[in-house]
Amino acid sequence: MSNTDAVEWPAGFRAVTAHAGVREAGDDLSVIVSDRPAVSAAMFTRSRFAGPSVVVSRRHAAGRRLRAIVTLASNANVATGEQGAADATEIAGHVARLTGVAEDEVLISSTGVIGRPLPMGPIRARLTGAWGAFDADPTAVARAMMTTDTRPKTAVRAVGGARIVGVAKGVGMIEPNMATMLAYLVTDAEVGADELDGALRAAVDDTFNSLSVDSDTSTSDTVAVIAGGAAGPVDAVAFAAALREVCLDLTEQLARDGEGATKLLRVTVEGARDREQAKRVAKSIVNSPLVKTAVHGADPNWGRVVMAVGKNSDDLDIEQEKVTVRFGDVEVYPAEQTGEVLARLTRVMSQDEVDIGVTLGIGEGRATVYGCDLSDGYVRINADYTT
Q: For 350-375, what is the HEC assignment?
């Protein structure tokens, strides 16, 4: 199901959104809660400048029994010192009282500008004031999480008699080193804590950790899954597959909506020594500004792709004579570029989804990574972000 279709929470989950004064207008605060005791798994940024919200959430997530998630949009609460830590702890406490769960069952995320203290006056007033019904749907939560995103991102899959629903945000400062941006997954499936953790880590490695918009790793990256169990047990293999599908759906939505992006870019490298080499080479392609601008301009300049492969100078087993490059299903290296081939390539590169394939001719390793083109829109968004 696409993020334009109506999405409802799985059984046992509800949510609320509100304006808490973090930004000038629009909802900037969201809370998701499980009405039942739950098991959970979470992964966080490895940035050395991880924000206080991440630090608090890491501590709470260690118990594997998260039940509530609160997000503040437009302020990262990063590089804010002891006050930032106190603010994150206070907010988690207010949400615990609001939802009736234990404080260490609350995950808190903040996203936005770095280095500014949270406006605790209006946030505190909102969290301690009167609240309406917890009737916000996943799309409303995804919209309240947005910063420079242009559209909310949701995904859903069924597994047995249960459902998995995901929401995500993030279109810039994205090359994850764990998960990426903010992504929350909730399910009414009954799943063991170890099983849930393993399924999340495997899914993240193939999806969020294979995404790059601009090669920059955020200080606030968080991905978490909460399983409430209202729908009963499901097949473990089917659950892991469905969880991966939700993560992949969100990953491609994030890539399509990359800051200033007009095209989704997929790069698949196969025939590598192992998966790690395949992923490393694929990332060098998807992160190349020259490749990304060629994709933006529908320019079939395969020389930029072989350049990106070749700059992996420590991979001594990569040999020019064994490498092949494809744009879509058209081989461009080594191949003769006739007029007919160039016409086909122009059509391939003009699509809103562009696939680049590379075979290294070494072994059986394979990986696909996801990204987007690079336009002047990216420069404008980030040049003017805080001014």
A: CCCEEEEEEECCCCCEEEEEEEECCC
What's the number of domains the chain is made of? 2
Nearest CA to 242 among 203, 210, 206, 204? Answer: 203
Task: Return the closest-CA partner of residue 138 out of 165, 162, 161.
Answer: 165
Q: What is the mean pLDDT of residues 326-332?
A: 93
Q: Answer whether the bond into residue 334 is a cis peptide, omega within 30°.
A: yes
pLDDT value of position 2: 46
Whose CA is closest to 332, among 353, 319, 346? 346
Instruction: Detail the DSSP E strand segments found in 160-221.
Output: 162-169, 182-190
Q: What positions carry a catalytic annotation?
A: 180
User: Residue 220 has what pLDDT?
Assistant: 77
Residues 216 and 293 in one domain: no
Question: What's the pTM?
Answer: 0.89
1 within some domain: no
How many other CB atoms sit within 10 Å of the CB of residue 230? 19
Last residue of one domain, picked from the residues 192, 224, 256: 256
